[in-house]
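Quick one:
INPUT:
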């Protein structure tokens, strides 16, 4: 049986930390019964026809001029996504689809193909239920929180919404082995016995980036052993944040002191080593569904300090496998919380429990079995009709 997964806005394999692409590739590559193929966006001039980890990859291109003229300025789009995808789907001949875009126009695709396929739509960002686009057999929420909002506030039919949490490759993301952390830190000029506090994600106020920098300025002033690592992109819309200029100035000061290392977005191949350098990862985001980076940090043995927003409490249990801080907590409270974890190495025991928790519940092996079962179920239900 053939499955085609569609990632309209990202490439596979992921090269920029794009969560829908990561989820799509990690679930599809572990199928036991379904034969997986992928359709995705070509980024950085990647080949249109490729193979990766045993999966056939078909990509489509959208040029910058075309995107600006027909999807941003005029919105006319003479060659829309469905028109690009329908010929590829006919060639791949899947028996079930897994689509990683909630607003995907299913009815238009069925019309273009001339037939209907069983389809699961993965909900990476919530919208209001719109049956005029076509109704999927199943909608996959990334947390119980997301499912509850979808069904109680956004109008989705409860019997069509399932939950498959975001997960992690527990072999790729693991705690450092003996001596490994010291060796890795030496690459960035960080002392092997330092205490390293990390930030991983988009550099935006809503993600807690400004709070992290303000916290670091206070912590390093009183502790010469503390260093920081910031990893992630700066989106264009970050410039609209009220704290943008102040954050730039703080990062510049911390970098000049050689106490915070700033690294742009990296692939998973590099990111795994950066997590192994960190003791604590701070992510005081204002809103999340189920952040992949927290699962990765916990799998790497880091102690996470985060806010109980969205589906985060389904992953982080306060003072058992991490620390939850109030979303309205001030910088002084955040500084006090993190400093308390650094005393007597209190962060280490939380990191050990975090790793075990993720191994048990959030490995991609475990979650892919759940997802494949859902896909086979909707295929069987369609076949029986």
């Amino acid at each position: 049986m053939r499955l085609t997964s569609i990632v309209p806005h990202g490439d596979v394999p992921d090269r920029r930390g794009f969560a829908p692409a990561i989820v799509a590739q990690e679930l599809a590559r572990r199928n036991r019964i379904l034969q997986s193929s992928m359709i995705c966006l070509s980024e950085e001039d990647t080949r249109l026809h490729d193979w990766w980890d045993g999966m056939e990859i078909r990509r489509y291109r959208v040029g910058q001029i075309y995107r600006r003229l027909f999807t941003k300025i005029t919105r006319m789009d003479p060659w829309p996504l469905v028109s690009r995808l329908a010929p590829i789907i006919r060639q791949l001949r899947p028996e079930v689809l897994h689509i990683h875009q909630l607003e995907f126009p299913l009815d238009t695709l069925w019309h273009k193909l001339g037939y209907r396929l069983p389809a699961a739509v993965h909900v990476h960002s919530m919208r209001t239920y719109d049956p005029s686009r076509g109704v999927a057999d199943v909608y996959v929420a990334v947390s119980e929180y997301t499912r509850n909002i979808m069904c109680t506030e956004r109008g989705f039919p409860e019997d069509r919404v399932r939950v498959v949490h975001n997960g992690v490759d527990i072999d790729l993301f693991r705690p450092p082995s003996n001596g490994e952390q010291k060796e890795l830190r030496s690459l960035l000029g960080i002392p092997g016995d330092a205490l390293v506090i990390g930030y991983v994600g988009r550099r935006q106020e809503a993600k807690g980036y400004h709070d992290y920098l303000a916290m670091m300025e206070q912590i390093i002033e009183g502790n010469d052993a503390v260093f920081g690592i910031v990893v992630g992109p700066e989106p264009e819309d970050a410039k609209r944040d009220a704290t943008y200029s102040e954050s730039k100035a703080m990062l510049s000061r911390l970098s000049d002191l050689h106490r915070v290392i700033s690294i742009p977005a990296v692939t998973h191949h590099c990111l795994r080593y950066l997590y192994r350098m960190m003791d604590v990862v701070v992510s005081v985001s204002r809103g999340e569904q189920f952040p992949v980076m927290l699962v990765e940090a916990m799998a790497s043995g880091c102690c996470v300090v985060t806010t109980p927003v969205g589906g985060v409490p389904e992953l982080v249990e306060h003072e058992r496998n991490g620390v939850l801080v109030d979303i309205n907590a001030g910088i002084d409270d955040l500084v006090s919380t993190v400093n308390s974890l650094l005393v007597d190495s209190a962060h280490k025991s939380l990191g050990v429990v975090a790793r075990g928790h993720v191994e048990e519940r959030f490995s991609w092996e475990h979650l892919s079995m759940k997802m494949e079962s859902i896909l086979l179920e909707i295929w069987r239900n369609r076949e029986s009709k």
